[in-house]
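name: query_chain
kind: protein
chains: 1
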Amino acid sequence: MSAQLPACQLLQRYYGDHTALCPVAPGRDEWLVHQSASMVSDSVALRDVWHTHQKAAFSPFEPTIELKGQVVLFWPKAHQLGLWWLDWLCQVLPEGTSVDIVGEHQGGIKRVPKWLDERGLKWDKLDNARRCTLYSTRTRALGDPDAAWTTFTAGELTLASHPGVFGHGKVDEGTTLLLEALDSRGLKTPLRVLDMGCGDGIISAWLAKRGHEVSAIDVSAFAVQATERTLAANALSARVLESDVYSKLDGERFDLIVSNPPFHQERDISFRPSARLIEKAREHLTPRGELVLVANGFLPYPELLKRAMGEFETLADNRRFRVYRAGA
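structure:
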């Protein structure tokens, strides 16, 4: 079976098909699933794939984690997130444990030796192919990965921020336009609201502060942690859980579904989560419920909305972002 991801093609060339691996922060790849003895990912969607194949899969925030196999860190596009993963591995693994690091050249993997040197981690270059490079290092005591968390103020709210979470350290322009559009509508209180793709929790906190019953979901454990910290920093409460779009909601219905849906997965553009958000919205809205989302103006959401929801309207348009509303 040939690997699909370039990084996995390199791993297959180097390790062959007989070495059990423990991928950390990997992409989705069928060969990698079968080669894994365990895995770690912030994505509940990826962990579900591994679980489907009866493979051990962990969130980095689980209290008990048992890593089996050769640990291979897939270097992410956001180098600050890669450094967090390095610090985390040095914290959870015994000192001197072998950790290999793989990534694509366009994703910044060639800068990894510099960052390893800065952390006092010795390294070797193991292989290079498919425009990817594989390095090896060994763990040693480093700083506390929790230091990567920061907070910043956005208007009336304090937000928690973590590398890899959408809008890290700043408020996205689209989110600002969305909140302005919601504010101008004067939402009745309280509504049962679903914040789909909650990120750092700004939308959930804004809604909870106005008395709504909020459920905040995200596919990423980092985002779930960030939203929980944001709510706590503002003395607010909401239900927060990991979910791959509607996968963990068991047919629940809401008066309002609101979202600034992602369309990037690392360096790739993917509309699949957004398409599922829109296509299944009716199944999760009350009879008079509404779907309100914001998106870049060039994205093909009007077609998706018209096909799935029938009529829709544009609540706001600043030439870069548009806020759409569709009723159940």
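note: DSSP finds ten helices and 18 strands in the chain.
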